[in-house]
Amino acid sequence: MVLRSKIFASLKEERGNIDTFSGALYRCFSLFSGLLTRLQTSTPTIQTLSSSNSFSQNIPSCLWKLGRLNHVAIAVPDLEKAQSLYKDVLGAQVSETVALPEHGVYTVFVELGNTKLELLHPLGEKSPIASFLQKNKTGGMHHICIEVDDIKAAMTELKKKKIRILSEEPKIGAHGKPVIFLHPKDCHGVLVELEQA
Q1: Has residue 18 got a pLDDT over 90?
Q2: pTM of the model
Q3: CA distances (Å), 6 to each of 1, 9, 10, 11, in order?
């Protein structure tokens, strides 16, 4: 907790000097931290007394757990230019373009070692990325994706906690796994994708 505070304090000092992408990542991780706080409930503690000492045993507050950050998705108006930036200029490993008609997007993944970037480009007239790019002509961060160990249990509990889910059932995402999206107004302004681990 102390380390995270120091990192955020350091980033805040540098915030004025960082470029737009770094600023977007800073906002992403700040909002991600707030989201984690909201999604995790306090864990009840039961204390048991024995003759020599006492210990506490944590009881899980929910039947599912958040996992690792899978990717940060960036909407781009020109997919070829974005691929070239990450591959040719920055030297990253970049996937081939994959069409996902059910989601209305073309996707490209950029491997970063500890996570990925997902480049998104509109596919079809009703693409949610097309409307995003109408408001953000140069593109920008679209969503974050976090893995969960039980997407159905997550859906059930999130609905009880009044977190809106943008579909009734999970859809198959870019990695061939079930995904859901949480309403950004319920997640501190961030569109959050949950993916079955």
Answers
A1: no
A2: 0.69
A3: 9, 5, 6, 9
* Both tokens assigned to 105: 């997007």
Where do the domains of the chain lie?
66-196
* Token couple for 154: 């997550």
Instruction: Indicate the fold that domain 66-196 takes in CATH.
Output: 2,3-Dihydroxybiphenyl 1,2-Dioxygenase; domain 1 (3.10.180)
The average pLDDT across 170-195 equals 96
Q: Between 131 and 62, where is the model more confident?
A: 131
Q: Could you tell me the pLDDT band of residue 106, with boundaries at 50, 70 and 90? A: very high
Average confidence (pLDDT) over 176-190: 97
Tokens coding 87 = 């591959």
Crossing angle, helix 20-39 and helix 2-14, to 10 degrees?
150
Q: Where are the beta strands (DSSP E) in 19-161?
A: 45-49, 54-58, 66-75, 93-94, 98-100, 105-111, 116-122, 140-148
Closest to 139 in 3D by CA, of 120, 116, 117, 115: 120
Q: Rounded to whole angstroms, what are the CA distances from 36 to 61, 146, 158, 187, 191?
A: 14, 10, 13, 9, 13
Q: Which long-range contacts (C-beta less than 8 Å, at least 24 apart) are formed by 44-50?
A: none
